């Protein structure tokens, strides 16, 4: 916990600073929702095709989902959402025009984690 997923358009492969972005999101989780760095896990998923609106124009996008153990206030989750959205453009080369979104949600009560 937190489980962080970054979905991004394929055309951002060379423009997305994955390591820097993951580190910044991990630190935001520590600062705003009392996570611990060793507990933060981020995976990146490349979307081969993304369509925004009617699809008439090519559009790049990044969507970050942060799943947390339950118990954080709505205010804390909103603060994390806003902080991650604000730091995201700094980790994308030529970020102008890229559609950005962030969602913070609670993990399901049945969530379990183990290290093999």
UniProtKB/TrEMBL annotation:
CDD domains noted in UniProt: CHMI (cd00580)
Stored SUPFAM superfamilies: Tautomerase/MIF (SSF55331)
Residues annotated as signal peptide: none
InterPro entries: 5-COMe_2-OHmuconate_Isoase (IPR004220), Tautomerase/MIF_sf (IPR014347)
Name recorded for this polypeptide: 5-carboxymethyl-2-hydroxymuconate Delta-isomerase
């Amino acid at each position: 916990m937190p489980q962080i997923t970054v979905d991004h358009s394929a055309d951002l492969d060379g423009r997305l600073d994955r390591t820097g972005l993951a580190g910044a999101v991990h630190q935001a989780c520590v600062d705003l929702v009392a996570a611990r760095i060793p507990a933060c896990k981020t995976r990146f998923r490349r979307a081969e095709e993304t369509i925004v609106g009617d699809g008439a124009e090519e559009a790049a996008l990044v969507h970050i989902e942060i799943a947390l153990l339950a118990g954080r206030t709505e205010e804390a989750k909103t603060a994390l959402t806003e902080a991650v959205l604000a730091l995201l453009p700094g980790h994308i080369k030529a970020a102008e025009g890229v559609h950005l979104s962030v969602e913070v949600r609670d993990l399901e009560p049945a969530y379990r984690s183990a290290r093999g």
